[in-house]
Amino acid sequence: MADRKDLWKDRPEKHDFPAANEYLTLLLEENITRKLVARLRRAPSIRRKAKDILRASHLPILERANPHVAAELKKIKNGKALSPVLLVRGNAETGLALIVADGYHRICASWHKDENMPIACRIVSLGPI
């Protein structure tokens, strides 16, 4: 198996950005999502722990048996690099949780492998747009 640092690509896959846009349009107006996705494209990739991303997002951990999580775990086992996840920063003052715009299954798979696993991610803030 590859080292942890080798488990993540430097850049998200091209299809991750339209997927993030589709999800974000369920939560925000399209003109805002276009700007957020454009900023995600330019944002640098950073590393954050799987457990911290899940805690900040308030999302439950999906089971290993989830087909998408299982597929990501298989990639990890085979040493295949994963695409960085795309995040929109929450706001503790207003109670807004971190938004996982793309990569929820990759986060859960990483948590199952090692909750302290550093995950490559790109993160942008919602305001001001």
Question: Order of strands side by side in the largest beta sheet?
Answer: 1-4-2-3
Helical residues, percent: 25-40%
Shape: globular
Rg (C-alpha, Å)? 14 Å
* Overall mean pLDDT: 92
The topology string of helices and strands comes to: HHEHHEEHE
Strand content: 15-25%
Q: Care to describe what's here?
A:
There is one protein chain. The protein is α+β, with helices and mostly antiparallel strands. It has one domain (4-125). It contains 5 helices and 4 strands. The protein has helices at residues 16-24, 30-42, 50-57, 67-77, 104-113, and strands spanning 46-49, 85-89, 99-102, 118-125. The chain has a 4-stranded mixed β-sheet. Helix 3 packs across helix 5 (104-113). The longest helix has 13 residues, at 30-42. It is globular.
Please give the structural blueprint.
Blueprint: H1 16-24, H2 30-42, E1 46-49, H3 50-57, H4 67-77, E2 85-89, E3 99-102, H5 104-113, E4 118-125
Parallel strand pairs: 2-4
Antiparallel strand pairs: 1-4, 2-3
Helix pairs in contact: 1-2, 3-5, 4-5
Key structural traits:
four-stranded mixed beta sheet; 129 residues
Short description, anyone?
This protein has 129 residues and is an alpha+beta fold. The chain has helices at residues 16-24, 30-42, 50-57, 67-77, 104-113, and strands at residues 46-49, 85-89, 99-102, 118-125.
